[in-house]
Amino acid sequence: AQSVSQHNHHVILSEAASLELGCNYSYGGTVNLFWYVQYPGQHLQLLLKYFSGDPLVKGIKGFEAEFIKSKFSFNLRKPSVQWSDTAEYFCAGVFKAAGNKLTFGGGTRVLVKP
Amino acid sequence: ETGVTQSPTHLIKTRGQQVTLRCSSQSGHNTVSWYQQALGQGPQFIFQYYREEENGRGNFPPRFSGLQFPNYSSELNVNALELDDSALYLCASSTGGRADTQYFGPGTRLTVL
């Protein structure tokens, strides 16, 4: 069955540090990939998405992600985090064989210390 | 443009009861998907409705059922509630294509005692 996994459950870092969150998926066919963010007390919001084309995708708030097909990965990066980036981050995929449903990873809680 | 809205915000029920959760899709969207997010986990797909028909279902028992109305709003019904049904229930709307973005509502927090 198709799945998405996120390597880190919790990440703690200081402001201005760089952030990289890992995401891997299990599926050999066509996949659309997403990163969603859930700020404290708010609903899930889309950060960025990959459908096709340039594997380096830029999203909102300075985030970017790189799709590496050979590694089945879609890691999220931000060069310099701010306290306001404290949130839970979810990687998700839509797999061609599974219709239009989103399959989510378990999430990574990121705490940015001021 | 109105976003996805859900009601109620919070709900407390006891085991064996039934519950109905509601979702209004974003303007221009004809597809609604429902997800269950247990504490500390990622959302799990329950089912999707496209133009009033069920269009895919996850690994949830039949006591989880739904409806979509002509205005594309939707309901999630859960019968015979169990303690493990306690979770955040998320609704997402989209225009229905596979290569499409789903936009989420704030969720309904259900607690089953």
How would you state the average pLDDT of chain B, rounded? Answer: 93
Report the sheet with the most strands of chain B, covering strand number, pairing sense and barrel closure: 7 strands, mixed
Report, as a whole number of angstroms, the end-to-end distance of chain B.
38 Å
Report the average pLDDT across residues of chain A: 94
- The H/E string of chain B reads EEEEEEEEEEE
The quaternary state of the protein chains shown equals heterodimer
Quantity of strands of chain A, as a count: 12
Total number of helical segments of chain B? 0
Based on secondary structure, the structural category of chain B is mainly beta
**SSE series of chain A:** EEEEEEEEEEEE
How much is the radius of gyration of chain A in Å? 14 Å
Cα separation of the termini of chain A: 41 Å
Low-confidence stretches of chain B: none
- Which structural class best describes the helix and strand composition of chain A? mainly beta
> Beta-sheet strand percentage of chain B?
over 45%
Main sheet specs of chain A: 6 strands, mixed
Give me the count of strands of chain B: 11
The percentage helix of chain A is under 10%
What is the C-alpha radius of gyration of chain B, as a whole number of Å? 13 Å
